[in-house]
Specification:
Layout (H helix, E strand, L loop, with lengths): L4 E7 L6 E8 L2 E6 L4 E6 L3 E6 L9 E6 L2 E6 L18 H14 L2 H15 L6
Antiparallel strand pairs: 1-2, 1-7, 2-3, 3-4, 5-6, 6-7
Length: about 130
Amino acid sequence: MADNLASVAWLYKVWGSKVGVLQLDGGQLSLTLKDGRQVFGAPLDQVEVRRWGVLGMSPNSQVKLRIGGKTYRVCFVSPSNADENARLSDLAFGVQGAMLSRSVRALGTYPDGLAAGAAWHQRLSPGDAG
């Protein structure tokens, strides 16, 4: 099993998800945001995988991790509330139009995100059928 793995990932937050890099390097798992802030960093044996996917759908789209007593939701596909999906020009179509535009941009991340999520699923939960 590979000791090193890295991919784009989002720290899910209800009011604005943030993009960064999820990385496994030498047995250490970390998530570092685009602005350079490290969200977490811990030895892999101190990381508890709580759940894959949401409500049993898209099992490789996201994972909930518990590290140091705190739970993190890490997405491999862009949540529609991520900053990079927003465009000021979307407001010309009203709030519903803006939300639809954000969702369409987020859908564009699914193929690569699900592939990355599958690699992480295999690495973090090797006995899981997901």
